[in-house]
Specification:
Layout: H1 28-42, H2 44-49, H3 52-59, H4 67-79, H5 81-88, H6 93-112, H7 117-145, H8 151-168, H9 170-180, H10 182-187, H11 190-203, H12 211-216, H13 218-243, H14 247-265, H15 271-277, H16 280-293, H17 296-309, H18 315-342, H19 345-360, H20 372-399, H21 406-434, H22 438-466
Helix pairs in contact: 1-7, 1-8, 1-11, 4-7, 4-13, 4-21, 5-7, 5-13, 5-21, 6-7, 6-11, 7-21, 8-18, 8-20, 13-14, 13-21, 16-20, 16-21, 16-22, 17-21, 17-22, 18-19, 18-20, 19-20, 19-22, 21-22
GO molecular function, one term: transmembrane transporter activity
Domain Major facilitator superfamily (MFS) profile: 30-471
InterPro entries: MFS (IPR011701), MFS_dom (IPR020846), MFS_trans_sf (IPR036259)
């Protein structure tokens, strides 16, 4: 029986594997449009980072204040992840897909013409709000457009795009900033975002939703925005403060976040989310997603400082080494998707998790004399591990997602990924400081990341024990 307090209607007789079963064939054009849109949204944070020095000079603000250009985007995106996911479950995916991309484009233009710093921050917050809606809707889009037996391959394309968008495209922001100024970093993607929004209207399947259910969900959504949004914001700020060694501030923010989170979980309206997270087949891979995402701390903090302070080399060395990472990921990810379709995705993801842990171990042996070849093969090994983990893990999550909860799960995974990419640099910075920088700092930071990725591997093993046996094909 459906809980009368739950605004959505359960689809009787259909489970996660049934979604898309009536498709004659997979809509790969829809997958391609969604993948390009994901690239544009995923690259927003990393590209903007290259514009910060120019923003400080042009708008006459301290360099330290420009960190809020990133936080103003990241905090709303994380804080609204769960509310956006639950809202998407009550909405038409096609409308949300195109509207969210159009809003990101409009906010990008507003950011590019901002005459003052505070206006830029408002525009960035609007971008983050729209990005939260998009990152919640891409899972429902894949669910509606892809036949169940081909979802591993579809998710592999998205995983590749997310990785390329967050790492490989980042230098484009530096090139645009140098060539045309910081404002170009924001407006350059607007035409592409608008084009993706139009293509979404033409290619993304539609799904009717109950208007009555949407009205009855208003108070639940308001509670999500207020409690979850504030709790997630406090948690992210606590992680940031821990990375800066302001222990008491971090502890206070962390306690405040936990208190709000506890309050939220006691609300009757949170039952759908709690039910999802009580399912170990979904909760454990989501935890693994968060923990494995912390590896970004190696790329964004430990290696840049080690290359600069210890190896006395420029950023070009890291950029060249990232080519090995991205190339290997691009080769392995499609194979990982096919393996996830042919076999159960969790064992494939577990092998990827184990390879990620193993790939971090050679990072402990980096020396000041290590050249591009030595750094390159290490990055290639890490790229293989991450690629083998990402798409099978997301496929495993999607396989256990109820038909009417794909938006909620999209929000949950977006939040998990955001927490992981915030946790990783903070832990890396803390390890670097505890090791007093240099080679010892690198090794301490890498050791901390190894602990996190080992915990991710353990979570996948737990998921394998709780997941149902594979059905006979």
């Amino acid at each position: 029986m459906v809980d009368p307090r739950e605004p959505e209607k359960a689809a009787a007789g259909t489970g996660p594997a049934d979604i898309g079963q009536d498709l004659a064939r997979t809509r790969w054009w829809t997958v391609a449009v969604s993948a390009v849109a994901t690239l544009l949204v995923a690259s927003e944070l990393s590209m903007a980072a290259f514009a910060l020095p120019l923003i400080a000079a042009d708008l006459h603000v301290p360099g330290s204040a420009t960190a809020w250009v990133l936080l103003a985007y990241q905090l709303p995106m994380a804080a609204l992840a769960l509310p956006a996911g639950r809202w998407v479950d009550r909405s038409d995916p096609r409308t949300v897909f195109s509207a969210s991309l159009a809003l990101v484009a409009v906010a990008s233009v507003l950011a590019s013409i901002a005459p003052q710093f505070w206006i830029l921050l408002i525009a960035r917050a609007l971008q983050g709000f729209a990005a939260a809606a998009y990152l919640a809707v891409y899972l429902p889009v894949v669910t509606l457009a892809v036949r169940p037996e081909q979802r591993g391959r579809a998710m592999s394309y998205h995983a590749t795009i997310m990785m390329v968008g967050s790492i490989a495209v980042a230098p484009l922001g530096g090139w645009l900033a140098d060539a045309s100024g910081w404002r170009a970093v924001f407006w350059a993607k607007a035409p592409l975002l608008l084009a993706a929004a139009v293509l979404g209207l033409l290619s993304v399947p539609t799904r009717a939703r109950s208007a009555d259910g949407a009205e009855r969900a208003g108070r639940a959504l308001a509670a999500d925005v207020l409690l979850v949004g504030t709790a997630v914001t406090a948690a992210l700020l606590a992680i940031e403060q821990a990375g800066q060694h302001t222990t008491w501030t971090a502890a206070a923010l962390g306690i405040f976040a936990l208190a709000l989170g506890r309050w939220w979980t006691r609300l009757d309206t949170t039952r759908p989310v709690r039910t999802l997270l009580h399912n170990g087949s979904l909760a454990w891979p989501t935890l693994a997603l968060m923990l494995n995402a912390s590896v970004i701390g190696l790329i964004t903090f430990l290696l840049p400082f080690f290359i600069s302070d210890v190896m006395h080399r420029g950023s070009g060395l890291l950029s060249a080494a990232l080519v090995f990472f991205v190339a290997t990921s691009a080769l392995i990810t499609p194979m990982a998707g096919m393996l996830a379709d042919r076999f159960r995705p969790l064992p494939v993801a577990a092998w990827g998790g184990a390879l990620t842990v193993a790939a971090l171990l050679p990072m402990l042996t980096l020396t000041p004399d290590t050249g591009l070849a030595g750094l390159g093969w290490r990055m290639a090994l890490l790229g293989a591990g991450m690629a083998l983990f990402n798409s099978p893990n997301m496929t495993a999550i999607l396989q256990t997602t109820p038909q009417d909860r794909t938006g909620t799960v999209g929000g949950v995974t977006n939040l998990a990924r955001t927490l992981g990419t915030t946790l990783g640099p903070a832990v890396a910075a803390l390890g670097w400081a505890l090791g007093s920088g240099g080679t010892n700092g690198l090794r301490t930071g890498v050791a901390a990341l190894i602990v996190l990725t080992l915990a991710a591997f353990t979570a996948l093993l737990a998921a394998a024990r709780t997941s149902p046996p594979a059905s006979a094909s």
